């Protein structure tokens, strides 16, 4: 991601190298931080959040009850798509950046970097949504299952549309790529010493950009950690909303029941999957009564039921994970780029 964030010189980087470096970095960081992602999802899922009282308690409980494998439950879905995901992020980031620059030699402003990052996040949600839906369904289950079984179950019940449950909340969360790239580039530039001679603003920015591309591993790792925290802090509430939507199932009223009865029943069914036979009884299509059926309904219901603090549930393990994961991400990316450039 660091190579994509740097404008000037890096805009001309071989896209194949960008893709390979991003894929290796993504796979490495995924392996490092996935246990904390599992804890985050458990905290954000209303049906099982009460089982754990802290990040470390959750880690210990999962290992004790589900063995070490439990911490990596659901990893196959994002691991299988990490190449496509990173390729889409870097390709869209590069495209959106080039649209804003006058030439390949132009140095992007931090505003342009943030805008390109936010746009790439929205585009990447096309891949992120189904992979994270499958991952979250697996992580929310206390029994062992496979990504293929979960994906097939979702498709069988709701078709392709079912695989994109929560796409709006996912896109809103992934706008955080703007803060992510912004923070990384801003931190790299902060570490650059100002030139000893007077320069005009264009020359100064070019000097800063070229120097930022030659930083040692220490500043790059710090910049990666800062980027990881920034990327989550600004959009974390939407991650909570997304998890609640994707961890739940549609709830439909049984034939002949009134709306009031359906709502009462919905509160006791623990978000069961709909019965296909019951669906066919609705001539005008079934109405989903799940309070977590959309981004807005999830925000309203969660706020009324649990207060504003619910939108930051799971933030602790996420930030703990963000620092080492993004240090590894940017460090690996820069190592691959420098090795093959």
UniProtKB/TrEMBL annotation:
Its main location: mitochondrion. GO terms for cellular component: mitochondrial membrane. Belongs to the mitochondrial carrier (TC 2.A.29) family. GO terms for molecular function: transmembrane transporter activity. The chain crosses the membrane at residues 75-96. This is Carnitine/acyl carnitine carrier. It comes from Ephemerocybe angulata. Gene3D superfamilies: Mitochondrial carrier domain. It holds the Pfam family Mito_carr. The keyword Repeat applies. It is found in: Mitochondrion membrane.
């Amino acid at each position: 991601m660091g190579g994509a964030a740097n404008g000037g010189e890096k805009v001309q980087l071989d896209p194949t190298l960008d893709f390979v470096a991003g894929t290796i970095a993504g796979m490495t960081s995924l392996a490092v931080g996935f246990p904390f992602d599992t804890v985050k999802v458990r905290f954000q899922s209303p049906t099982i959040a009460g089982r754990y009282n802290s990040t470390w308690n959750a880690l210990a409980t999962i290992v004790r009850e589900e063995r070490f494998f439990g911490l990596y439950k659901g990893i196959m879905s994002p691991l299988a798509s990490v190449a496509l995901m990173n390729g889409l992020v870097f390709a869209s980031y590069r495209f959106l950046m080039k649209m804003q620059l006058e030439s390949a030699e132009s140095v992007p402003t931090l505003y342009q970097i943030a805008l390109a990052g936010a746009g790439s996040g929205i585009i990447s949600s096309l891949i992120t949504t189904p992979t994270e839906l499958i991952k979250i369904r697996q992580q929310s289950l206390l029994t062992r299952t496979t990504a293929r079984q979960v994906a097939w179950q979702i498709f069988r019940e709701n078709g392709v549309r079912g695989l994109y449950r929560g796409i709006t909340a996912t896109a809103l969360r992934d706008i955080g790529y703007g803060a992510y790239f912004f923070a990384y580039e801003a931190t790299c530039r902060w570490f650059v010493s100002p030139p000893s001679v007077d320069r005009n603003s264009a020359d100064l920015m070019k000097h800063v950009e070229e120097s930022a591309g030659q930083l040692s591993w220490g500043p790059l790792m710090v910049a990666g950690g800062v980027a990881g925290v920034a990327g989550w802090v600004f959009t974390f509430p939407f991650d909570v909303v997304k998890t609640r939507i994707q961890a739940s199932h549609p709830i439909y009223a049984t034939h002949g029941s009134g709306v009031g009865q359906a709502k009462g029943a919905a509160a006791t069914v623990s978000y069961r999957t709909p019965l296909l036979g019951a669906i066919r009884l609705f001539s005008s299509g079934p109405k989903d009564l799940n309070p977590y059926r959309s981004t807005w309904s999830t925000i309203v219901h969660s706020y009324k039921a649990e207060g504003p603090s619910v939108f930051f549930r799971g933030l602790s393990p996420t930030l703990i994970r963000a620092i080492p994961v993004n240090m590894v991400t940017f460090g690996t990316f820069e190592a691959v780029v420098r090795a093959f450039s």
